[in-house]
Write a structure and sequence with these properties.
The chain is mainly β. The protein has helices spanning 3-12, 92-102, 110-119, 169-179, and strands spanning 16-17, 23-24, 50-52, 56-60, 69-71, 73-74, 84-90, 129-135, 152-155, 181-183, 187-190, 196-197, 201-206, 213-221, 224-240, 246-247, 250-254, 256-258, 261-263, 273-275, 284-297, 314-322, 324-325. The chain has four helices and 23 strands.
């Protein structure tokens, strides 16, 4: 969050304070990460680095499959990435300059906040850094547990007890997970989607192979250096025929590790989809989803030891409308 944003939040009470001391705001619900200053940040995509917060860098491996990608979806609907956290920002002298320049002439309650920090003498002469709250999104539509009287916290070298919202490798792993792009299943149907037939088995196969995808979130600023890497490994393909008039309606295929990655072919499997009723003048919404087992390690090395607590499985999905017709018989 920028200095201007902090002053506005304190001086105008926007975002609006919730009854539990956390912060909510108004605006859209965009999940696009914002770089410092409010501009959209590149989330890393299939190759180069992006940024989140003030100094967190996001870097992702390029998926081996040539298919298009989509942001990972958590298999746990209740899982949410961090809304906000503290990042290292200022030395005591820098913090004094920040407060005096940004809060000059501020009205209440910002004026009282600036006085509070001045009364602490900004911890000048002490070893440590001021850490400032940063937001995953700049629209403030989600509750942040940081209270308004602690937009910054003082963190000495030997901190007795860390603030629960202070940046850690675990928080970095969650931010990396939320930024991960996964390949959509490059599914090919045989017969083709527009020519499926009633009571004729539909073969489902991959056009290409998958391999694991890793994403690293890291920070290296003013002597504070930490990283976390999430590793997503494809484990299963789930096929949904899009109608109960299919046998089976859903199938799950385990992905097999080969020389060129993970793949699946339903040719010899026991659950090829067979449609039992025509789609008439409409279509059926065929869907294929890959389940990815996600682990994380507290370094930039994707081969580092897996850490706890674990992260939920990820999903990437391909959707295709299919047309199913009756086989026309010729009477003689």
């Amino acid at each position: 969050m920028t200095a201007v944003g902090l002053v506005l939040a304190l001086g105008t009470l926007s975002p609006a304070q919730a009854g539990d001391g956390s912060w909510h705001g108004a605006g859209d619900n965009s999940d696009t990460p914002k770089a410092p200053g409010g501009s959209p940040a590149d989330s890393g995509g299939d190759s180069g680095p992006g940024s989140i917060g003030a100094h967190i860098r996001i870097n992702q491996s390029k998926p081996s499959s040539g298919s298009s990608t989509t942001t990972a979806t958590s298999s746990n609907a209740n899982w949410k990435p961090p809304v906000c956290w503290y990042e290292p920002m200022y030395t005591p002298d820098e913090y004094e300059d920040f407060i005096k320049s940004s809060y000059k002439g501020a009205q209440e309650p910002a004026a009282s906040y600036a006085k509070k920090r001045a009364d602490e003498d900004f911890h000048k002469g002490d070893k440590g850094l001021w850490w400032q709250v940063q937001f995953r999104n700049d629209d403030y539509t989600e509750a942040c547990p940081v209270t308004t009287d602690n937009w910054e916290i003082w963190v000495p070298p030997a901190q007795p007890k860390a603030d629960p919202n202070q940046l850690t490798p675990e928080i970095l792993s969650e931010l990396a997970y939320n930024s991960t792009k996964l390949p959509k299943p490059p599914v090919v149907l045989s017969p083709s989607p527009n020519h499926l037939k009633v009571n004729v088995g539909t073969r489902v196969k991959f056009e290409g192979n998958f391999d694991r995808v890793w994403t690293t979130a890291s920070i290296n600023y003013k002597g504070v250096e930490m990283a976390a890497t999430t590793v997503a490994t494809p484990v299963a393909l789930r096929v949904d025929a899009g109608t109960s008039d299919a046998d089976p309606q859903t199938c799950t295929y385990d992905l097999v590790k080969g020389n060129d990655g993970y793949t699946v072919d339903s040719k010899d499997a026991a659950c090829n989809v067979t449609y039992q009723r025509s789609s008439g003048t409409g279509t059926y919404p065929f869907k294929a989803s890959i389940t990815w087992k996600v682990t994380w390690t507290d370094s930039a090395d994707p081969d580092g030891p897996a850490r706890q607590p674990g992260l939920p499985d990820g999903l990437s999905t391909y959707e295709q409308n299919v047309t199913v017709k009756e086989i026309q018989a010729v009477n003689r």
